[in-house]
Amino acid sequence: MLRNRSLHFYGKILRPSKTNPSTINTMMFSRNTLLAAAAAFYGASSVSAFAPSTAVGNTVSRSSPAIYTQQTASRQYSSTKLNMSSSVDLKGKVAFIAGVADSSGYGWAISKALADAGATIIVGTWPPVLKIFQMGLKKGSFDDDSTLSDGSKMVIEKVYPLDAVFDSPDDVPDEIKNNKRYSGLDGYTIEEVAKAVEADYGKIDILVHSLANGPEVTKPLLETSRKGYLAASSASAYSAVSLLQKFGPIMNEGGNMLSLTYIASEKVIPGYGGGMSSAKAQLESDTRVLAYEAGRKWGVRVNTISAGPLKSRAASAIGKEPGQKTFIEYAIDYSKANAPLAQDLYNDDVGNSGMFLCSPLARTITGVTLYVDNGLHAMGMAIDSESMSDRNQ
Ligand SMILES: NC(=O)c1ccc[n+]([C@@H]2O[C@H](COP(=O)([O-])OP(=O)(O)OC[C@H]3O[C@@H](n4cnc5c(N)ncnc54)[C@H](O)[C@@H]3O)[C@@H](O)[C@H]2O)c1
């Protein structure tokens, strides 16, 4: 059945739902501020088979000459009929969302939208923030942000510790094993988590990569070390490749993977440094190559959403110059001043678009970067620029 959330796709009313008015606020700024701000951004640390649903109308144009030219000897015409419905029903589908540790970010919103459509939600959480997230869940700290369209609360069935910079146990260095933030935990490498998920659920249908980390994000690329650059790439781009390598074999045909990228991959966003722009460019290129490889190998789709700025926890934690706004605050304000749609962007907007890409409605969409950013990506001029002030009057 079509829930309210899903209607957003059809209604063309990308009206934000309620989450986080504070996120409402979220790119060319004063360099120092941006450098600081970008840190927060990421550096803060750091469908079973989506078989087509039911019948659709009689839109088959059997007499179309175009169709006739495509006839084969064995079939008189290729049917253009796809059994469809206007609803999204993900009941019976299992979604693993990597990179959820609170309710402010995109991973949470995508989880919620998928849960709203009926999917079973399991998440992977970075060990250093695992306890605080589990405590928050237990205490009901995220209840207000968990409400689904039918009034019920999203249930996260299981939280797996996951450190996406490690592929298998051999990769974990002693300094991590002995780190108190990892004490008492094991099985958090990507390979181990995939095995644990397989043991618990058998196969999954939806894999979401909603994580990034760039230890030197505050540094311009010209000042970024090899170590920092490769760390950003490892945590923010290769992690997606590795996740699909390990989870692909346990994904049902028709399933899909979704990741989150940012416009800094293709346009210069001063302040988004440390190789994070490079990592996002990798992520987008890898989306296309993985779409081809995973499509042919497992029948799995691979897409990424280029999301507009959101004051997520990671983003908010970024430093700032005294008396100035943070990177993310500048980014939100810039977007509102210059994007084609001067409206707030909520994490639920990306949640809804993510749910669409993960649903059978998008069964032929793969290898795309979908902009969910109020159209900011399309602009080539800042309309609030001082040099435009005469024209704007
Ligand atoms: N916030 C924005 O404005 C914005 C814009 C475009 C794209 N994105 C992307 O959205 C995704 C989610 O970010 P968000 O802003 O919603 O913030 P978020 O804080 O909700 O998500 C980032 C998550 O990554 C996790 N993480 C960091 N290193 C990890 C590791 N090694 N292993 C496992 N998890 C790790 C963090 O614990 C955190 O939960 C990221 O890929 C980010 O680049 C964000």
UniProtKB/TrEMBL annotation:
PANTHER family: ENOYL-[ACYL-CARRIER-PROTEIN] REDUCTASE, ENOYL-[ACYL-CARRIER-PROTEIN] REDUCTASE [NADH], CHLOROPLASTIC. It is an enzyme of class 1 (oxidoreductase). InterPro entries: Enoyl-ACP_Rdtase_NADH (IPR014358), NAD(P)-bd_dom_sf (IPR036291), SDR_fam (IPR002347). One of its GO terms (biological process) is fatty acid biosynthetic process. Pfam families: adh_short_C2 (PF13561). Pathway: Lipid metabolism. One of its GO terms (molecular function) is enoyl-[acyl-carrier-protein] reductase (NADH) activity. Its EC number is 1.3.1.9. Keywords: Fatty acid biosynthesis, Fatty acid metabolism, Lipid biosynthesis, Lipid metabolism, Oxidoreductase. Belongs to the short-chain dehydrogenases/reductases (SDR) family. FabI subfamily. It comes from the Eukaryota. This is Enoyl-[acyl-carrier-protein] reductase.
